[in-house]
Amino acid sequence: MSQTARGPRHTALDALHRSLGATMTDFAGWDMPLRYGSERDEHNAVRTKAGLFDLSHMGEITVTGAEAADLLNHALVGNIGSVSVGRARYTMICQADGGILDDLIVYRLAETEYMVVANASNAQTVLDALTERAAGFDAEVRDDRDAYALIAVQGPESPGILTSVTDADLDGLKYYAGLPGTVAGVPALIARTGYTGEDGFELFVAPEHAEKLWQALTEAGAPAGLVPCGLSCRDTLRLEAGMPLYGNELTTSLTPFDAGLGRVVKFDKTWHVKDAGDFVGRAALAAAAERAESAPPRKLVGLVAEGRRVPRSGMSVVVAGEVVGTVTSGAPSPTLGKPIAMAYVDAAHAEPGTAGVAVDIRGTHEPYEVVALPFYKRQK
Amino acid sequence: MSNPQQLRYSKEHEWLSATEDGVATVGITEHAANALGDVVFVQLPAVGDTVTAGETCGELESTKSVSDLYSPVSGEVVEANQDVVDDPSLVNSAPFEGGWLFKVRVAEEPGDLLSADEYTEFSGS
């Protein structure tokens, strides 16, 4: 798991991926599986059966101490003080000007112990910001990126597959909850979270146990149709589910309100020991909330193609020849069978059903329909 | 994978069949198809179009990217594979067979096409 001066970092499962014939790609400084075979087949396996992912590039940061909750309340935009032991929260970390530094999942592992999971590309930024913001709090911020491998099992068959290799009470484990347990004889933090729009689990384990866990899940999942899945289908799965990707839908020049995710910002927080009162970005975010309410400049919308050409990040959204927005993510949707995209579009053209919207795909204005997000919602 | 011996290859990863009555078939190699991933959209030159060796004549879109299609030969397009337009996954499943792209009446062939063995060495697969 070490970083060499020249090459990208390798996860604990690197040799396994290569033996499976994976096409690898550089992602945020990590050499990660892009796909093993057809990314469309991998996508469909997660929608209908199950998929197995190596997500060890994600950045884990542990925060402990009597004022750990207060520090996180101060450093992040969510009300972390209200998260119960064993539960998780989707949240964001913002700059003082309200710009998004990263989107995160925070797990409360124990009374005074939290694990913050950051995107690989932002892990160092988040670590630095948390460390800096910890000044004055009785709390310790620890870089645990090398302490964990992360394996995800996602898809409707994932509860059955995981049940066959653990005694942990998965029925009692709700969405956005996490509990320590043993999986395939390996100690793991079992979390019911994911980035696919399906039911599923994320398993944080010591890197030296990653191969054993991967093999056990592969074996247990084979009868149910589980296949190894790369980052390519992870991207189309999250896009169909309308989930934002940092660097695409989320950037430092946008606030959570600009991204349509103002609900993650909590101005009233539950303080434990020390009431810091304020959190980083509060004033700017209060102004952003008002702006989003009264005069939103652009809105994040879904676009569905009428044709077959695929919109890509950075392409312009046009109405009657005028640029009215920008595509942030686009891909052929295996579930819908046509190209889809997320885009920031001027509020005047952002209502679902707005006519005359097109994407400029290499000079051709391809017609697109504006739809509400997400594109896909699983049946529960 | 193996690159069929009877075909010749361009460094842009297209293949060209032997000419029959002056007409040759063009496709992309399995190496190229694997590098692209699942092909979801194919834009081919139209029948009657003139294509020029080494110049773009269409595009192939996959999940992650779009790539230009280069013609390995100069001439006039006499047929485009409608099957592959309707089902672009043929490019992945049968790049040397049902996934062929277009047929061209050859006007001029470049001198630098590779043999199967040369292409295998060039592409590393």
Automatic annotation (TrEMBL), chain A:
Substrate binds at residue 202. GO terms for molecular function: aminomethyltransferase activity; transaminase activity. This is Aminomethyltransferase. Transmembrane segments: none annotated. Residues 298-377 form the Aminomethyltransferase C-terminal domain. The glycine cleavage system is composed of four proteins: P, T, L and H. It catalyses: N(6)-[(R)-S(8)-aminomethyldihydrolipoyl]-L-lysyl-[protein] + (6S)-5,6,7,8-tetrahydrofolate = N(6)-[(R)-dihydrolipoyl]-L-lysyl-[protein] + (6R)-5,10-methylene-5,6,7,8-tetrahydrofolate + NH4(+). Keywords: Aminotransferase, Transferase. It comes from Streptomyces longispororuber. One of its GO terms (biological process) is glycine decarboxylation via glycine cleavage system. It comes from the Bacteria. Belongs to the GcvT family. Its EC number is 2.1.2.10. The glycine cleavage system catalyzes the degradation of glycine. GO terms for cellular component: cytosol; glycine cleavage complex. The lineage of its organism: Bacteria, Bacillati, Actinomycetota, Actinomycetes, Kitasatosporales.
TrEMBL record, chain B:
Coiled coil: none annotated. GO terms for cellular component: cytosol; glycine cleavage complex. GO terms for biological process: glycine decarboxylation via glycine cleavage system; protein lipoylation. Keywords: Lipoyl. Binds 1 lipoyl cofactor covalently. The modification N6-lipoyllysine is found at residue 64. InterPro entries: 2-oxoA_DH_lipoyl-BS, Biotin_lipoyl, GCV_H, GCV_H/Fam206, GCV_H_sub, Single_hybrid_motif. Its cofactor is (R)-lipoate. The keyword Magnesium does not apply. The keyword Cell membrane does not apply. Residues 23-105 form the Lipoyl-binding domain. The glycine cleavage system catalyzes the degradation of glycine. The H protein shuttles the methylamine group of glycine from the P protein to the T protein. The glycine cleavage system is composed of four proteins: P, T, L and H. Belongs to the GcvH family. This is Glycine cleavage system H protein.
